[in-house]
């Protein structure tokens, strides 16, 4: 665990008279973001930072944030979830092995239900010097990541085989794609384009991991908990074909089984913490520009008493992650098969990403439809996409699904 903390200075929060375009405020090096439909949080500067890994990574992060929250609590005239000091977080897919990053920005600008505010820690310059986002990156060169398409299809076929042997019911297999541009990639341009094209997604950026995720792992507001579980995907089509594909997804026994396992994994993990928990019996459709998903919005109320009643947001995130939307069923066998077949380190892809405030409120999505900007080459990035594999999955169809999912970030890169 490494932590840096220059945060023991005054925290001030003021309401802003005008509602700023949050993503337009970000400085040239990108900063931090969690924005959907123009609302959410952006931040920049670093008042404190934690990098943590190991079997107790999230517990250590929770203790670090509890301690810091005590130092950072301050009068907050806005008083809504996200106002005051916050930490942005990007957790490794496997927090025991990978590095999770928590950043407390010096400046946060937020907007919620039309109310805008700015929180500053210490005395940083209030707004960055504005420069326009950079131009299109010119020519893009793509290269296979860990597995070429044929090898990845072979991995899917092997997974289907293992599922047929009754070893497990579902595993999510992902692949990566490398991209290099002629000029450095501009995170602000990517975030702008992602949020324009994917208004129903959360456009996030934490420590070089950028994306627009449609999946909300867990939101905590007071004791109210909510989640949007996704699993089961169909491509988009033109005209009547699009409606046919939507109806086929809703009626697909394979996709519904894949979806039910993801909902079940979240519900089972949350149940012990909740007095009430509601998961609709039927999934709905979430339609995005590139794909359509089966979706279930789960809501619950956290218990008031006992050890589980006092669990904080990071304890809850640790309890629910990884769901079967990104790992599989049963999770231990699925994680072992992912390690065996994927041939890559997921890093923070498919891990929880979001923010938490000093009151214990916050939102965590799953880091999907994203790319990790290269720390060594500002013109390069690594894109990720994965698919749930169940009995009856067809490797060629799953490969096509990863291509449709990559297309979300590719559209932001291109043009
Ligand atoms: C693992 C990913 O998507 C998950 C979320 C929605 C639908 C999924 C699916 O249909 O396979 C995946 O479970 C990804 O986009 O990389």
UniProtKB/TrEMBL annotation:
Source organism: Trujillonella endophytica
Protein name: isochorismate synthase
GO molecular function, one term: isochorismate synthase activity
Pfam families tied to this protein: Chorismate_bind
Domain Chorismate-utilising enzyme C-terminal residues, every copy: 150-405
Transmembrane regions: none
PANTHER family xrefs: ISOCHORISMATE SYNTHASE ENTC
Keyword list, A-Z: Isomerase
Family: Belongs to the isochorismate synthase family.
Domain of life: Bacteria
Catalytic reaction annotation: chorismate = isochorismate
EC number: 5.4.4.2
